[in-house]
Write a structure and sequence with these properties.
Strand order of the largest sheet of chain A: 1-2
Order of helices and strands of chain A: HHHHHEEHHHHEEEEEHEHHEEHHH
Largest sheet of chain A: 2 strands, antiparallel
Helix content of chain B: over 70%
Number of helices of chain B: 13
Structural class of chain B: mainly alpha
Strand content of chain A: 5-15%
Structural class of chain A: mainly alpha
Order of helices and strands of chain B: HHHHHHHHHHHEEHH
Distance between the termini of chain A: 47 Å
Largest interface: A-B, 76 and 72 residues
Shape of chain B: globular
Radius of gyration of chain A: 23 Å
Helix content of chain A: over 70%
Number of helices of chain A: 15
Strand order of the largest sheet of chain B: 1-2
Oligomer: heterodimer
Strand content of chain B: under 5%
Largest sheet of chain B: 2 strands, antiparallel
Distance between the termini of chain B: 49 Å
Number of strands of chain B: 2
Chain lengths: ~450, ~325
């Protein structure tokens, strides 16, 4: 993902790839950290209320997986705070005082998360059920708060506020204004909803897989129904919030919007292109809908949409990476809306999951698809902002460390993350395959 | 008292708590490594898992607290520390990944081979992480991290006598703290044999820790004259207190008074850390950058302290609740 970046530091490419690897891994685990606790507590609560052992078993087994994922997330998040300094010391040195505050607050949220998860995981049966459930909710709330503040820092990179630059020096620092930048609200809402979709779908996937393989127990149906329902409730909300986020980009980062839509020349009555590729300055092989881009971005079919040519070539992000990611994300979003409708119709008709095996196949795919959409959305935000690390203020190539040999750290990290991914998958699979306790293993009618 | 000093003190309190709490968790990892084969080492490993299981995630967060306070409050110190010392920091970070993940994985694994693999990763990284973090401290206190945007020597900044001293001291002090805490835990929960085993380990690390610390004075004299001067002047009372508390802790360990030994061992560590802090004051980067010069603008320091105060209102009760539950033995069940 180099685009039109000039590089005086030969390891700039590796520094960016390392950041992409670390963030791209952590973002998935962080989503599970935010939303998984709510799923676990939903199952626990249902088990306590109905006395149905299926849900209690579900809650306990999910909790074990959650504990493993939390351990991975805690370390993959820690690595990021090292990397901010190791890879981008000039950015941190120059702007740490402006945009450090949300991270400082996030530290407390993460702290509470770590405390609550210790109490929740080890306090099973020892604490009163209501207290135990409340602690579980506490993990999720702290996780969501944590994401809110991390995204505040990212929002600041997109909409840098709360400081002035006078004679090359950063002055007049207003850290609260920086924290509450305008990009925060759409970005954070979009991120938090994404977490519920990603976690719900990822948790649903193994249950759908087990059902497809004929392990048709009530247990797996209950797990699939609960997790997928949470995700599918979030999907329509996400489409609305996604639109809000895109309008914000249109207003505040016109070059990013131009890359997302492949708009070369500033134009009125801008059409929307669905599909296709950006080749030689235009979108080819796409379905073209007149006026729609102007309408979607500015509520007016005649509105002017700024093109890439409003900025020099050196200030443009790589269009196809950004545009294709955006298209994929939106396509997956609409496919999920369809899956959600399918679920809703079956539920209204029969109070049960759809019977079709195609539904189970789709549910198996939902997990990986949600992760793909998540990564695509993040690529749109991050790569779409390039070549800037701080939009229109600091270039990524000016932020990178000048230390030699950065690439070896990246190579080392690739092997560590590969091993970590393999081990995490193996451990989760083992947890999923552990035999069910007798009271949950019985087959039965659909829940 | 300036705002910058208050923020620096808060950050250093984070370092202190990280050393006392996470340090002991690292040490426990070392004892896990040398506990013997799967069968013989099982009781010790079970004690270690029970002692650190519910708390280690929280203990780890002190490191994050230190990092975010450093980059928000003292961004111009954070940047050169991270870029100049990126080699040991990367290795420490990788140790942190392996350690956290492997400990979490081992808990839910059952096969002997898998548990052994995760156990080895957990234990090895428990030694490497404090070692490399110790070398980072050595690089800063010996004045090898230059202020400004110029990166210092990425090798000699941590491959030097003071850094080696820092690394070795970090590992041995973690091992000592862990042995004392675990002896006290074993004693409290009625496991006299394990208490005895960790008593021997506490003595086997506590005595060398004192000897190395004494020998370290010569290293600092030769390699870090600035810090040496600080430690022998402004920091001297605290260093003396540390030596006294450490020696008394050893006496209590010999006499099997583990509960008291635990507090004295902690006092020894706190005193030596604050001896270092007072000895290095007013420098943030020894002989390169003062706390005052490194500090963020006033508005940021105020905002950081407001966040710290508000955050503590939530954090302190939660932490106390966790510790009370642990002490009561209420966190012993797993899902």
């Amino acid at each position: 993902v180099t685009g039109a970046l000039g590089a005086s530091q030969p390891d700039l490419f590796y520094a960016r790839e390392q950041m992409a690897l670390s963030l791209g891994s952590h973002i998935v685990i962080a989503c599970l950290g935010m939303a998984f606790p709510f799923l676990v507590v939903l199952a626990e609560r249902r088990g306590n209320r109905t006395g149905d052992a299926i849900y209690t078993t579900l809650a306990r087994r999910w909790a074990k997986a959650m504990g493993v994922l939390f351990a991975v997330g805690a370390v993959s998040g820690t690595i990021l705070s090292f990397e901010f300094g190791i890879l981008w010391p000039r950015w941190m040195g120059r702007f740490g005082a402006v945009m450090g505050l949300p991270f400082a607050i996030e530290g407390f949220a993460f702290f509470l998360e770590a405390i609550f998860i210790g109490i929740y995981l080890y306090g099973w049966d020892r604490l009163a059920p209501r207290v135990h459930q409340a602690v579980g909710i506490g993990i999720g709330v702290a996780g969501v708060a944590s994401a809110f503040f991390v995204v505040a820092a990212n929002g600041w990179m997109n909409d840098p506020t709360g400081f002035r630059i006078v004679g090359g020096k950063v002055t007049d620092v207003k850290p609260w204004a920086a924290l509450f930048n305008s990009a925060l609200w759409p970005e954070a809402t979009h991120m938090i909803l994404a977490a519920f979709i990603v976690a719900g779908c990822l948790v649903a996937t193994p249950h759908a897989w087990a059902l497809l393989r004929g392990r048709g127990t009530r247990y797996h149906r209950a797990g699939l129904a609960l997790a997928l329902t949470v995700a599918m409730v979030a999907v329509p909300l996400q489409l609305v919030v996604g639109d809000w986020a895109a309008r914000h980009v249109a207003a505040k980062q016109p070059t990013k919007l131009a890359a997302i839509e492949g708009v070369t020349h500033t134009e009125r009555n801008a059409p929307l292109h669905v599909g296709g590729l950006y080749i030689g300055g235009e979108v080819k092989g796409a379905l073209r809908i007149p006026d729609l881009l102007s309408l979607l971005a500015f509520d007016d079919p005649h509105a002017t949409v700024q093109g890439l040519d409003a900025v020099p070539v050196s200030d443009r992000p790589p269009v196809n990476v950004v545009r294709t990611s955006f298209q994929l994300m939106v396509a997956i979003g609409f496919a999920m809306l369809g899956l959600g409708l399918w679920l809703l119709l079956a539920w209204r008709r029969r109070r049960a999951l759809p019977r079709s095996r195609w539904f189970l196949r789709a549910a198996v795919l939902a997990g990986p698809a949600a992760v793909l959409a998540l990564e695509c959305g993040w690529i749109v935000t991050e790569v779409g902002r390039q070549p800037w690390i701080v939009y229109h203020v600091m270039r990524t190539s000016d932020a990178v460390s000048d230390a030699s040999g950065l690439r070896y750290g990246y190579f080392l990290l690739i092997s560590v993350y590969t091993a970590l991914a393999v081990a995490t998958f193996a451990v989760l699979r083992r947890l999923g395959r552990a035999p069910l306790p007798a009271e949950a293993a019985v087959d039965g009618t659909q829940p | 008292v300036t705002l910058a000093n208050v923020v620096a003190a808060a950050m250093f309190s984070g370092i202190t708590l990280y050393a006392l709490l996470a340090g002991a968790d690292f040490g426990a990892g070392l004892w896990d490594l040398v506990a013997g084969n799967a069968e013989r080492g099982a009781p010790a490993r079970a004690l270690i898992e029970a002692s650190i299981g519910p708390v280690w995630e929280a203990n780890h967060v002190w490191l994050i607290f230190v990092l975010v306070t450093l980059w928000t409050g003292f961004p111009t110190a954070f940047a050169p520390i991270m870029s100049t010392l990126y080699v040991p920091l990367t290795l420490a970070a990788i140790g942190i990944i392996l350690r956290g993940a492997a400990f979490g994985f081992r808990k839910v694994s059952s096969g002997v081979e898998t548990r052994r693999l995760y156990g080895a990763a957990f234990a090895a990284s428990s030694v490497l992480t404090p070692f490399f973090l110790g070398t980072v401290v050595g690089g800063v206190v010996s004045g090898r991290v230059p202020a400004g945007t110029r990166t210092g020597n990425v090798i000699r900044s941590w491959l030097n006598p003071t850094s080696m001293l820092g690394g070795v001291m970090a590992v041995i002090v973690c091992a000592f703290l862990a042995a004392v805490y675990l002896a006290a835990d074993a004693d409290r929960t009625g496991k006299p044999e394990l208490a005895e085993a960790f008593r021997r380990r506490a003595l086997a690390t506590g005595v060398p820790a004192g000897v190395i610390a004494a020998a370290g004075v010569a290293v600092l004299h030769a390699d870090s004259p600035g810090l040496f001067h600080g430690l022998t002047h402004r920091g001297a009372p605290l260093i003396a207190l540390s030596a006294l508390a450490g020696a008394t802790a050893l006496v209590f360990i010999v006499r099997r008074r583990f509960a008291s030994a635990r507090y004295l061992a902690a006092v020894a560590v706190v005193a030596v850390l604050w001896g270092w802090a007072t000895g290095q004051y007013p420098w943030m980067l020894e002989h390169e950058l003062t706390i005052k010069a490194a500090a963020a603008p006033h508005a940021t320091l105020v905002a950081g302290l407001v966040a710290l105060g508000a955050g503590s209102l939530l954090l302190v009760p939660a932490l106390l609740w966790l510790l009370v539950l642990v002490q009561r033995g209420a966190l012993a069940n797993e899902p």
